[in-house]
């Protein structure tokens, strides 16, 4: 079935603030009125080749990266250069901050993950981990290849490695890079603030497990834009503690679509708010827009606006699933437990045939609408929502 759907989905009452506070400040040098003519700082170029890296795609270049990072981190306005036309085969690396200000990492060649699983024994969860960085830029024309094939064949529930993680970073820019074939997720931004992610190309096969594109967790003020994301799992996933998340001009597909959650696993309290997704295209994804929460958890997903989303060949355009279950044995129904809140959820303006909204929603919301209506936390207010849906084919 070919669906072309243009829709506006509004959850909750309050308006989303459309700009990420401070976003504009990212990466721009501070201007002082009295020294405008001052020459720009000279950059200290730290070339990975000077630290014994071979870049032949076979030799283990991990130590060269560790040494070069150490140097670059201590240099004012340092640029860690990974030259073009080289492939650096590396195991897990922790790029720790804080560093001197103005550090940039220019990835023009390729970083390729070690296929030797024993290399990951010390920290199973991270391959490239950037931690405690401030005013940091990662960019370049190069690529990051997680060599995921050796991981995908393993059971999908064993601990797997995230290709690129940013943890506790402030004023972070990640741009232009290509990320592919991660062990698990491509890129996660965790417990960070003031982040701009743009012009990424993210690809993994449609059947590669858990290869989410961009995973945002516990992060405030993040703007993700102009990126192409085709993977085997969520295009963008936004989970607990994230607020002021904007995603725009994103192309997704294949994959599982854009999702909020899952929230409230193991009865945890999770909150997600101020999410603004607009001008996105989803093509050939299993889901479109999804909010998923486990039974029994607490918290909320609120102030969410999906606007101008184009869907083509999407199996489940909208899923609001408050009975999410993603484990081998079925989750026990917990009807008595408080259902998670999607605050003031409202629908309006279905134009797909007269008198059919209910039927339509039964098709798009996988867990049927009656269920949703029955929960105290969710109201369906058809006056508030504006929706325009066009179906072709
Ligand atoms: C986060 O990073 C900053 C430096 O940017 C550091 O001072 C702080 O201690 C870090 N916080 C945690 C929880 O690691
Ligand atoms: C629809 O998407 C699926 C993957 O989800 C793909 O296999 C199929 O070829 C697509 N169909 C069309 C008509 O594009």
Distinctive features:
single chain, 393 residues, mainly beta, Pectate Lyase C-like, 18-stranded mixed sheet, 4 helices, 8% helix, 41% strand, binds 2-acetamido-2-deoxy-beta-D-glucopyranose
What does this structure look like?
The strands form two sheets. This protein has an 18-stranded mixed sheet that branches. A nine-stranded parallel sheet has the order 6-9-12-15-18-20-22-24-26. The chain has a domain at 234-388: 3 Solenoid (Pectate Lyase C-like). The protein has helices spanning 62-74, 149-152, 357-364, 369-374, and strands at residues 5-11, 44-47, 56-60, 78-82, 87-90, 93-96, 104-107, 110-113, 126-131, 134-139, 143-145, 162-167, 170-175, 178-180, 187-190, 193-198, 201-203, 214-217, 220-230, 236-239, 242-252, 258-263, 269-283, 287-293, 298-312, 316-321, 341-342. With 393 residues, it is mainly β. Bound molecules: 2-acetamido-2-deoxy-beta-D-glucopyranose (2 copies). Residues 97-98, 132, 134, 168 line the site of one 2-acetamido-2-deoxy-beta-D-glucopyranose. It comes from Capsicum annuum. Belongs to the glycosyl hydrolase 28 family.
